[in-house]
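G.,

No rush on this.
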Amino acid sequence: MQNLQRGSTEFTLRHQLDALPATDLVTAQPVTSDRLGELAELARREIPGVRASEQELAEFLRYDPESIFALYRGRKLLGGIAFLYLNCAGLDALLLDAFNLNDPARRHLARPDEEVAAIYVWALVAQGRGTVGLGNVAQALRGPRFHAADYYAQPSSTEGRAFLGALGFTPVPSFQPDLWWYQRPWNRLPEVIAPSIQSTRIFAERSLADARH
């Protein structure tokens, strides 16, 4: 996963992701096919390691039209954010480092008519005021299909780690290297309870599997 935020001094990272306010300054909406090539070029230029072509992104849009959001000010493209919406099998595979982030298997992705088990932030690029549009994206992902899903991401830089931390992400124990996790406020348990039951279960399953070999 490549994840880089190019920010603006106007964007205040003091709120967790689900507390970011919506704004009228920037429009955030699922990208349309006529702007997909421009967004793919921006991502390749601004995010280290990204090589996704317009054709590859179009495949994901055909599978799930809500998987890529574009950020606009008027007609000017300021950036975009791409997600992988995982089903339960996909979340398990992610935590076990058995998930191909470059070419995700369809069996690990939630169908467009299926509730999402986890939201993986696949790529993020935003220029100038584009970052304030993340509040609009967060608002869209509080809908019924996404309501129960926590976020996961892998930062590709020190800047990316700081950005995730400011949004309420924390490193999570997993076999996937440098995986960060944002737990939705309504999913949080009291602090006296272990914060990641899911991770504990995954580690237990992996340990048992390893013991069989």
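When you get to it, here's the other one too:
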Amino acid sequence: MVSKKQPILKKISNGLTVGSVITGSTFFHGPPVLALGLTKLIKKSKKIDEANIGITNSWLSVNNWLIDHVLPNLKWHITVDDDLDLSMQGRYLMTCNHQSWVDTTVNQYFGLTRMPLTRFFTKWELIFIPFVGQAFKILGFPMMKRHTKEQIAKNPELKYRDLEEARKSCEQLLSQPFTLLNYLEGTRFSVEKHQQQNSPYVNLLKPKAGGLALALSILENEIDALVDMTIVYPDGAPGYGDFWLGEVSQIAVNLRKIAIPDWVRGGNYEDDAEYRARFQKWVDELWAEKDQLITEMKQQYAV
């Protein structure tokens, strides 16, 4: 009876500790970020941006401390290719496979001391979520007002308005080091989605190249590297609660540098059909390499 109760008690202990610490940390770090953000309405300041990033990194460091101390049995297998020289002062575009809400936590755990704060494209509608939406805006997450195909068909100018919004959002990052993350699959992997897409990959959904093409067209001359992160959960992709309750025994992460072909630079993905097809083929080839890498990582770290 005792041996059966111990895992349950451990889960309860983990849940109470994690919930209490994250809630307390959020209430401690959140108000200063919002307060400093309001001052930007009056005067833009690089020092304010740096202060907000410092506060955010402090919040992330609390989360990482929890991972190291509340989940001490979690094993990390982290591999960074030799030709990828990461720096806290760098500017990076990053692609990643997407399986779980835990992916972002993994990215933050890895990147906190190795790379600038990671942002990702978010929907403008998130601005209305209390605290979270405002924090995304203040911290420079590119927030986009995307219009549907039906809306664009009625008013083609909306397409270029969306692109201009994205351009402005990305350009705002150029005043500081950054990591801009793009989940190319556009959604979390599931067997059902994989079957519905008839995906040609074993471990991945089909990649959507448009977001990466857009980011490269805006930032291509300003980034230090295009980085591909691959995350593998040998136990199977966990839920967010499963992760914090200690249900995950190991996580494997690989980072590699992706060479950007010369022909990619200066292309027009939206209006040049030939370029768009060539760019999509390039991304498909990168995804095929990634698919093989995931298979190899699963075999290497099989439970």
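The beta strands are 75-80, 91-96, 118-120, 122-123, 143-144, 178-183, 225-232, 250-258. The chain has two domains: 1-72, 73-116+177-300.

Enjoy the weekend,
O.
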